[in-house]
Specification:
By secondary structure, the chain is of the alpha+beta class. The protein has helices at residues 12-23, 63-74, 87-90, 134-142, 164-180, 201-212, 258-270, 272-290, 329-336, 347-357, 410-429, and strands at 2-8, 28-33, 46-58, 78-82, 106-118, 121-127, 159-160, 185-194, 216-222, 225-231, 234-239, 242-246, 248-253, 299-308, 312-322, 344-345, 368-372, 378-381, 386-390, 395-404. It contains eleven helices and 20 strands. It is globular.
């Protein structure tokens, strides 16, 4: 079905840049970049999939069943996303908040052209229908050139969907739910947006990636819609019979002063509120994985470990399980979606309260982008620290959120949101 070639390059970063520039000609693009951030469960340094041969796009109704049929029938690499609002397919929930972006709720495609990068080795996989284009494409990629633009045509005016006083009021309402025992924790998000705005998606992504250099960076293009993501978080991965989930809960800012930076890291590690947030979500993830796990196979490999990124320190846990060979990969996604780090506990109650208090339909934000391999393995990130753009509507959006628990202070939660939003705001406001 695919022609495979292996090429070796002398300068991997240069090749990656040229490859991403070359990809801009296509209507369907998924670029996933680890930024050489070595993790225990990394497969590739970067992956590019372009040019849809087949595809599926749908709203939330029976979305997972349709994806299951598409993945089973295709039996090939497929790349795409699940929006947060597929929660409405999993549970009896609704999404009625404002949506300025209008992304399809699920989209996957089978790429004609695929590049898998590890070190200086490039594995190229083209569908047989286009495999005669490999050599010409490599020549074009090698000569690719792009002049980055460091200013936008118009001033970008960022607006808040929820203003500060309203944010405090909403967090206090959520705290009342917690004190009443409706929930233990919920992830509450707010949108920052700009209307009548034109951006250059590739420039914007490159700037965001330069600032953050995260392990799950994504440039996603589907016709006129773009995701430019600096995500540090893995949602879920399937590697043979092993399932890996790595929820993030707990954030601290960085400092240029080494001593102060180490102190901030230590404070995060020992912060009782942040640890309780993380542990609650670990319990939720353990419960989600147990739905498809072989008996006794769910394990917490890492609990509340601190990872350092360019913008922030993060508290990350790693939860794993083993599955039976008859378990369908899409069923694993369906039984764990949406990810616990972006919802709360108990999950359904948290999602109901979130829907009432948030002002914006989340869409792809706090959803996931990733891929399935031909043998049914998969790897998906969490769409956070991301800029979303509808080119036709000239609408730009980024959202940030935080976990609200009984120990939350509304002002501190608001300040944490601003820390998380810093990179996106810097990129857009230049």
């Amino acid at each position: 079905m695919r022609t495979l070639q292996i090429h070796t390059v002398d300068h991997t970063e240069d090749f990656k840049n040229k490859l991403l520039i070359w990809a801009q000609q296509f209507e369907d693009v998924v670029w996933l970049d680890s930024n050489n951030y070595k993790q225990t469960y990394s497969n590739y340094d970067a992956v590019l999939a372009v040019d849809a041969f087949t595809s599926i796009r749908t709203d939330y109704v029976d979305a997972f069943d349709q994806l299951k049929e598409y993945q089973t029938t295709t039996k090939d690499w497929i790349f795409g996303y699940l929006t947060y609002d597929l929660k409405n397919d999993v549970e009896h929930l609704i999404s009625q908040n404002f949506d300025g972006l209008a992304f399809p709720e699920l989209y996957f495609f089978q790429p004609k052209k695929l590049f898998l990068i590890k070190g200086n080795s490039i594995e190229i996989q083209y569908l047989r229908a286009v495999d005669d284009e490999i050599e010409d494409d490599l020549k074009t990629i090698e000569s690719a050139n792009y002049e980055r633009c460091f200013s936008y045509c118009n001033d970008i005016k960022i607006k808040l969907r929820i203003h500060k006083d309203a944010y405090f009021e909403k967090v206090n309402t959520m705290l009342a739910h917690i004190h009443r025992g409706d929930i233990y924790e919920a992830n509450f998000c707010q949108e920052f947006y700009a209307e009548n705005t034109i951006i250059k998606p590739l420039d914007t992504y490159l700037r965001l990636n330069d600032i953050s250099k995260p392990p799950f960076a994504t440039f996603f293009k589907c016709e006129d819609k773009y995701l430019l993501s600096a995500s540090p978080e893995r949602y879920i991965k399937k590697e043979g019979s092993k399932i890996i989930s790595q929820p993030i809960k707990g954030t601290a800012k960085r400092s240029l002063d080494t001593k102060e930076d180490d102190q901030l890291k230590t404070y995060l590690l020992n912060d009782e509120k942040e640890r309780s947030e993380n542990i609650m979500i670990v319990d939720l993830v353990r419960n989600d994985l147990s739905k498809t796990a072989m008996k006794g196979s769910v394990q917490v490999e890492e609990l509340c470990k601190i990872y350092t990124f360019d913008q922030v320190h993060q508290m990350i846990s790693t939860v794993t399980s083993k599955i039976d060979s008859n378990t369908h990969p899409v069923d694993i996604l369906k039984s764990t979606f949406p990810m616990g780090s972006m919802t709360g506990a108990p999950k359904i109650s948290a999602m109901q309260i979130i829907e009432k208090l948030e002002e914006t339909k989340r869409g792809l934000y706090s959803g996931t982008v990733g891929y399935f391999t031909p043998n049914g393995d998969f790897d998906f990130n969490v769409v956070i620290r991301s800029i979303l753009y509808n080119e036709t509507k000239q609408y730009v959006s980024y959202s940030v959120g935080g976990a609200i628990t009984a120990k939350s202070d509304p002002l501190k939660e608001y300040e944490e949101c601003l820390v998380k939003a810093k990179a996106m705001r810097e990129v857009l406001e230049d």
